[in-house]
Amino acid sequence: MVQRKLKIPKHGGPDGQGLPQEVFEELMRIFTDPLVTDEDARQTMELSFGASKQQEWNEVYRPKLLEHIDTNKK
Questions:
Q1: Model confidence over 57-67: pLDDT tens digits?
Q2: Contact 23/57 with Cβ under 8 angstroms?
Q3: CA–CA separation, 28 vs 53, rounded Å?
Q4: For residue range 8-33, what is the model confidence (pLDDT) as tens digits?
Q5: Cα 46 off chain centre by
Q6: d(Cα 23, Cα 28) in Å, to the nearest integer?
């Protein structure tokens, strides 16, 4: 588990066009790579967040990120 000093926000809208599963899988690869900086991980997460729909982010992607990354409950 990678420790990141990041907040994984809830999506409150507006909806993006939707985030394909393949893109989320790349986000997870970036997030779990210990060689990737927190800043690079944050930027990738923000782009993915903006592209996603509120429901898919809050119900599918955000829980998976929180499950796999120790965010120190931030």
A1: 999 999 988 88
A2: no
A3: 17
A4: 899 998 999 999 999 999 988 988 89
A5: 7
A6: 9
Return left, alpha or beta for 8; rule: phi > 0 is left, psi -120 to 50 is alpha, else beta: beta
Assess contact for 47 and 27: CB atoms under 8 A: no
- Name the pairing type of β-strands 2-3 and 69-70: parallel
The two three-digit tokens of residue 61, written as one number: 């992607």
pTM: 0.79
Determine the residue type at 55.
Q
CB 1 within 8 A of CB 65: no
What stretches of the chain adopt beta strand conformation (E)?
A: 2-3, 69-70
Tokens linked to 33: 């790579």
Instruction: Please state, in angstroms and rounded to a whole number, the distance separating the CA atoms of residues 74 and 38.
Output: 14
**Ranges of each domain in the chain:** 22-68
Structure tokens at 15: 């909806």
